[in-house]
Structures are given as C-alpha cells and as structure tokens.
Amino acid sequence: MIIKSVLPVWVAAALFVVPAPVHANDQIPGSPQTTPILIRGATLHPIEGDVIERGSLLFEQGRITAIGRHVRPPEGTEVIKADRKHVYPGLIEPLTDIGLREISAVDVTIDRDELGQRNPNVRSWVAVNPDSELIPVARAGGVLIAHVAPGGRFVQGQSAVMMLDGWTAAEMTLLAPSGLCVAWGTMQPNDKDSVEQARERDQKWREFDEWIEQAKRYAAKQASESEPIAEDLRLEALLPVLRREMPLIVSVDRQSGIESAVAYAVEHDFRLVIYGGYEAEACADLLKRHNVAVIVAGVYRLPMHRDDPYDAAYTLPERLRRAGVHFAIGGEGSGYPGGASNVRNLPYHAACAVAYGLPREDAIRRITLSAAEVLGVEDRVGSLTVGKDATIVIADGDLLETQTNVTEAFIQGRRVDLSSKHTMLFEKYKKKYGER
C-alpha cells in the first residue's frame, strides 16, 4: 500500500532551503603556563609607569613576577628575544557583543537579545560562543579582554568581562556579572517624538521607578524574614546594583540623558557608567562630582548632529581628558552594543584620538588600564605590574600604527594562537599567486 501525503507549499519549500554554514574557529586554546617565561630586550609599556627601553618582563604560573632593565630569571626559564619589539598589557574592549553575534545578516548566528524589554536576569556570559571566528581576529589585533554585554531596547541584562581564549565560556570569564545594562536613551525625549511615543517613554519611567522600589522591598523582606521568601530572578538581578556591588551601565549620548542618568543614580545611590557619551564634555563637572566614568563608544564615527564639526567624535577623548573625566575608549563606533567584527580595530580608534590631540601613552592607557578600572578588574589586568595576570601582547612596532603586527600574546601566561580566518586566507592567496 502506498500512502500519499500532501505537504503545504511553504513546508515543501523549506525542506530545500539549506542555511549557510557557520564554521567554528580551528584555534586550540592555550595550555596553562608550566615554565617561567622572560621577554628580554623589548620596549615595555607598563602603563602605571614610564616606558622602559630595552627592558625585560618575567612571568610565572600566569602572573607577572618581575619587570625592569635587569631581571634575573630562574633556572629553566624560556627566553623570548624581543629586540626592537614592544610589549603591552592585553588591550581591553570596554563594551561589545563579541561571542554573541557572528554574522549580522544571519539571524541564527545572533544571540545578543532576549525577548521582552525588562530582562535584568539575562546573563550574557552563558551565551558566549568560545568558537566564534571573530575572537581570533580580535586577538590578532591585540585585544585579549572584552566586556561582553547583551542587547535589547530597555533593561538589557547583565554583562561580564571575558578573556578571549578558552574551551568554554566559564573558562573565559574573568568577572561576572560586571554590570547591569540599560538602554537609557530609549527613556529620553526626542524632538521628533509623537504624542504616543512620549506617552510610551513616560510609561517606561514609571515602570522603571516601580521596579526599583519593588527590588528594595524585596531586599528588605529578604533581610527581615526568618522564613525564605519566593525567589524572583528579575528582582534578584537588581540587588547587586542596589548594594553598589556592580554598576548600572547606561547607553546614552545626549546631555539631557546623561544628566538624568546621573540624577537617577545619585537619588538611588547607584554606581554609574555611561556608554556612548557623545555629549559628555558638557556634563564634565557633574560626572567628576559623582565619580561617573564614560566608555566612549568609538572614536572613528560620524558627528551626531548636522551642525557639529566633522571631527567632533575624533576630539572627544582629548576634550574629556582636559575636562578631567575618567573614561575608556571603545572600538565599535556605533550601536549598543555595536559590531563584534570591529573589535579588532580598537587600537586604531585610540590612534585616531591621538591624531586629534590625545597624548599617545594616554591613548594606550584608555584601552588598557582605564578600561580595567571602569570595569572593576584593574587588580587583575590593564598594566604590566608585578602580581597581575600575565595577559600580554608582543608587537613588532607601535600598536597604534596600522602596519604593526602582534607577534605573540599570552592570557594568564597561556600562549595564544594568533592565527585566524584572516591569516589563513592571507597564506592561501599568497601561495596561490606566488606560485604563478
């Protein structure tokens, strides 16, 4: 007996649609350091001190143990001769969705947004893909640490500071959670808002206020009740912010939005970090008074207003430095969080700021130690300091120059594979055209 069945046209068509394959990277994570390693004869950029010419750096068991002109290594030390090379702490991308987004045009490779608009319990680090093709590319640019944040239209979720090497997301995690991310700009009025849009914004404010108050009552009840209360994951996620254990990270560019975010944080005694900060200079005194740091969302980007100078974004870091605002430089340029594929360009955003006034060593600080300070991991990374993790980049020149290549890198003393899809394609076509 032959059983006949008729499939709907759309089902039949779907059977013949084969999605484009998304391949994992082939790099094997580094093994734990087993022998001491000495980098000798390089130009060292400690960040927390003056540049050391022809210096040496020793690290053991994943930690820096000595730095200076004359370092005596223990017996059995591996020596890396680094004459005419430069050594930096691993660069830090202060906000990105690397590991959560692979190909922007392919929906199934994007895992940065959760359904709904209030998701404080979302944890970005559990969704990070250690096999992302974009991670080796970022490492090849000197970026070894990334602050991975979820996306979304309102309360986006919790972020984490991740090391860009490891078999699993758990192995890669340096600090989690590191902040609660909120798209603050969506709560601010816009000149083009309709009456309905303005009403929606007011409703968001009321919801957010009520939510914070609920979290405070929830915390008070937890502290006073002898019997355990029913757990609310969303309210639980807000408690570290209420206790000032982690900051509220708000994405906002306009002066009015920055001022309202600071006022809200002061009212509720929150720690606050501004992401974006295009008009932060206008709020410099306010930011300094309340110790609010800014993550500049890319330097090489277009002006936000039609009547702005063409170089408004390029000069922002130097203007913030002169104003005394604590800030770090990001490398994604637009969006919240922006394109993960652009993390590799982080040093060139700092270089653009140098071209428009920011001192060179200060620019390097803004993508290393300053970023670590903003994210709360300055005791582990961000500078070449004895006792900190041996998260180190060796380059054949000034890392802010586009012709410079990273020759070696270490994360907590583990040697990192610097090959990537880019280097493999380069070798492939060099061979192809070199043989003809």
Number of spatially distinct domains: 2
DSSP helix count?
12
Strand content: 15-25%
The CATH architecture of the largest domain would be: Alpha-Beta Barrel
Corresponding CATH superfamily of the largest domain: Metal-dependent hydrolases
Write down the Rg.
Answer: 24 Å
Shape: globular
Unreliable residue runs: 1-22, 334-338
Beta strand count: 16
CATH topology of the largest domain: TIM Barrel
- What is the H/E order? HEEEEEEHEEHEHHEHEHEHEHHHEEEH
Largest sheet: 8 strands, mixed
CATH class group of the largest domain? Alpha Beta
| Rounded average pLDDT | 89
N-to-C CA distance: 62 Å
Structural class: alpha/beta
Query: Percent range for helical residues?
Result: 25-40%
Question: SSE layout and pairings?
Answer:
Elements lengths: L8 H7 L21 E8 L7 E9 L2 E6 L9 E4 L4 E4 L1 E6 L37 H7 L2 E6 L6 E9 L5 H4 E10 L12 H30 L8 H10 L5 E5 L2 H14 L3 E5 L7 H6 L3 E4 L15 H12 L3 E3 L16 H10 L4 H7 L2 H7 L16 E4 L10 E6 L2 E2 L5 H14 L2
Parallel strand pairs: 1-4, 1-5, 6-7, 9-10, 10-11, 11-12, 12-13
Antiparallel strand pairs: 1-2, 2-3, 5-14, 7-8, 8-9, 14-15, 15-16
Helix pairs in contact: 4-5, 8-9, 9-10
